[in-house]
Design brief:
Length: 254
């Protein structure tokens, strides 16, 4: 049975992850096409915010990568000429614990203080539910098994399957944990991958501090939040002031 992924479901794919802000305006499938048209290619881990200005195109990170993941952009590439990037469908980043590519960078384009590959943000995975086998009701879950941060970056969520009693187990990304390594893209068995690495800057929104998600324990104003508990602790009564005296002139304690 085919599950039609509506625009709302497509947006829900990402929104289900903790800490996701907003994805208003476009269906995910449409968004993935837009990201492809813009030609985003993931950067090496630990890339500085000013990466393209700081990178001196020396290629040392490319040489240091034991998996030949990184390569320098040639003429006509989607990223600036001579800068390192990778194509996850060909060779993903295998998330080396010792991050050798970062350690050799002489210019600070890759930040040498970066030492936890789980905190890398090379891009962010996004799923097109209309071509994802699992979202369409088949069992696949290759991306789930291949993800080095499974159950954190990539989760399987049960969804009702129309009239069938068997649920669909659909992959969902949590952008708070996804590193953009692309191992999921590499393993995806569909003809054109149903999962892609896209530019977080062009996709992730920010919810704004004036919205209150009071039902979430990690949020301010939830009674379970430790900071909130502290605020609700009984306070010592304030010493009476002049106004108290005027309001109650009969009270001998004032
Ligand atoms: S973390 Fe490892 S696999 Fe990934 S780009 Fe760096 S050296 Fe290559
Ligand atoms: S590997 Fe591809 S088709 Fe399979 S569940 Fe993941 S995104 Fe869907
Ligand atoms: S890019 Fe894919 S495999 Fe890598 S952390 Fe994100 S969801 Fe997991």
């Amino acid at each position: 049975m085919t599950i039609k992924a509506t625009r709302r479901q497509a947006i829900g794919l990402l929104l289900e992850g903790a800490g996701v802000a907003a994805a208003a305006g476009a269906g995910l499938a449409g968004f993935v096409s837009t990201a492809r048209a813009k030609g985003f290619e993931p950067l090496p881990p630990g890339a500085d915010a000013d990466f393209y200005n700081k990178c001196i195109r020396c290629g040392l990170c490319v040489k240091a990568c034991p998996y030949d993941t990184l390569k320098l952009a040639g003429l006509g590439a989607k990223v600036p000429y001579g800068t390192p990037y990778f194509e996850p469908r060909k060779i993903p980043c295998y998330m080396c614990e010792d991050v050798p590519c970062v350690k050799v960078c002489p210019s600070g384009a890759l930040d040498r203080r970066f030492d936890d590959i789980r905190k890398a943000r090379m891009g962010i995975a996004a799923i097109d539910p209309n071509s994802c086998l699992s979202w369409q009701g088949l069992r696949c879950e290759v991306c789930y098994r291949d993800c080095p941060l499974r159950d954190k970056a990539l989760l399987l969520k049960p969804h009702p399957r129309e009239l069938s009693k068997h649920a669909v187990f659909a992959p969902v990304i949590d952008p708070d944990h996804c590193t953009g390594c692309g191992l999921c893209v590499y393993g995806c068995p569909t003809q054109v991958p149903a999962i892609n690495i896209i530019d977080p800057k062009t996709f992730l929104g920010r919810i704004g501090e004036h919205y209150r998600l009071g039902w979430r324990e990690d949020q301010p104003h939830h009674p379970g939040n430790p900071a909130e508990k502290l605020q609700q602790a009984p306070q010592a009564p304030a010493a009476p002031g002049g106004l108290d005296f005027l309001n109650n002139m009969d009270d001998p304690t004032l």
